[in-house]
Amino acid sequence: MASSSNGSWETDLRDSVRTNFGQGWLEMEKEFDLWTKKNIMNYTSDPDEKNDKRYPPSLQKARKLLRVEDKKAKADGGVVDWGYLLTHIDSEF
Description:
Layout: H1 9-31, H2 37-45, H3 57-75, H4 82-88
């Protein structure tokens, strides 16, 4: 491993781990299509977090991520227009 200008191998290792973890996360997110009718309809029909455990892991992940987007919109004083999304999304599943 080449050393950085900081001269610390620990810093280089931390940077490498951060970079590689980030790249892996991006690759995983590319494969996961959050904005599908199935995910949105599931979340909007039962948005309560305590009920997430009733759903399979893939839907649990989608529900969690949609909830984050919903809360961000509400924190900014807005709302997510779920109806608009449902009528304009091509992917059924």
